[in-house]
Amino acid sequence: MSGNSSDYIKYLPATLQGDEFIGKFILAFEAILTGQNLLPETNPGIIKNSDTNPPGIEAILEAIHTYFNPDLTPEEFLPWLANWVAFSLRDDWQASAKREFIKKIVPLYRLRGTKEGLSQILTLYLKSVNLPDKVTIYEDDNYPPYYFQVSLTLPRLESSRYWQQVRIAKAIIDQEKPAYTYYGLKINVPSMQITGNLYPLNIKPIDFVYLVGFQVKYKITAKINRQTNENNNLRLTIKGGLSERKIYASQFGTGNLELNYTLKEQEIKTIQNWYIEIDNLSDSDATGAISITTTYSESKPESSSPLKSETQSKEEKFFLPPGLKIFTKREDKYENGNTWLGTEGI
Q1: What is the pLDDT of residue 69?
Q2: What is the DSSP string of 130-142?
Q3: Sign of the CA dihedral with 319 first, then 340, 230, and 292 last
Q4: pLDDT exceeds 70 at position 331
Q5: Judgement on whether residues 229 and 181 belong to the same structural domain of the protein
Q6: pLDDT exceeds cutoff 90 at 292
Q7: Whole-angstrom Cα distance, residue 127 to residue 114?
Q8: Which of 117, 212, 237, 278 is most buried, judged by most C-beta within 10 A?
């Protein structure tokens, strides 16, 4: 457009090109069809009726390919573009995360339902929101069948962001895992501490020099009694050691549990710290009572009955919140909060 006459007038028959009224009249058509020019690889955005200076149709057609580019398309178009790759976007995702998923989700479909696929899709999300992309998926013989744990890390504890990432990670895992499996979600942050109930055992030291020629045994028995119909999945373990406690026996279940372990002679000699631990592997409170019994006995190898036997027992009620607690520091004290399944501190 130039001055008060449309550039389109040069395309009219020669007899009309000198008509001043026609030159002004077709200015409106030029504004609609050509309008303002756009820079290369620039998306026109969402065009509204209220826009005072919208791009022309020609400019929009030249930039139409940018609407199909996840990096260039307007944020409002992302759900529509996600439908093209059969993917649903969460409303609480950042725009950067939505764009990354649309770009990279199709190759990951062939890994859906696998450990590798779940790890890659969680890594993709964490990278897209500038979080540490450290993802660990644990499968252990000590876990019950079809159970696994996923560990993620946040660089610091920010309450609002923590809960947002928990919800998003849980939604991703629920969507990608095989339907018959269940899991624990670990969100590692610097101020977390383990919440499972820990019961130290009174294993007295033994003078093995004095007991030469004797057989010495320690038997540990732990029982969980549930008074209600709670369907919580608990883990009952017997552990030994100091800073790194090794699991020597474990049992999982939703009802009453019983666990027995007889210490080997070498374990009695070398490990003095023993514990019973209960972990809540569900997303609701768990209550009940635990009874712990330790039996010490001495016998001669040729004797069928013990020469000496001592038994110690204790019973107490327990309450377990879901998973672990996030500790919030107030002055010089820490107060508790709750999170989801099996979270552990760093």
Answers
A1: 87
A2: T-----EEE--TT
A3: negative
A4: no
A5: no
A6: yes
A7: 20
A8: 237
306-311 long-range contacts, CB within 8 A, separation 24+: 307/214
Tell me the HSE value of 296 on the side-chain side, using a 13 A CA sphere: 9
- In this structure, the answer to whether residues 298 and 204 fall within a common structural domain is yes
Q: How crowded is residue 326: how many other Cβ atoms within 10 Å of its Cβ?
A: 23
- Tell me the pairing of strands 215-225 and 308-320: unpaired
Contact of 240 with 287, CB cutoff 8 Å: no
Top-confidence range, 23-37, 39-53, 139-153, 180-194: 139-153
Query: Which of left, alpha, beta for 13 (phi over 0: left; psi -120 to 50: alpha)?
Result: beta
Assess whether 172 and 207 both reside in one domain: no
CA 30, 32, 38, 40 dihedral sign is negative
More confidently predicted of 161 and 342: 161
The tokens for 257 are 């549990």
Q: E strand or H helix at 241, and its extent? A: none
Cα gap 138→145, rounded to integer Å = 13
Residues 213 and 189 in one domain: no
Which domain covers residue 174, as residue numbers? 112-193
**50: burial class by Cβ within 10 Å (0-12, 13-18, 19+)?**
exposed
Residue 63: CA atoms inside 13 Å, Cβ hemisphere, count? 22
SS3 330: strand
- The token duo for 301 is 């190898």
Residue type, 331: E
- Mean pLDDT value across residues 251-274: 86
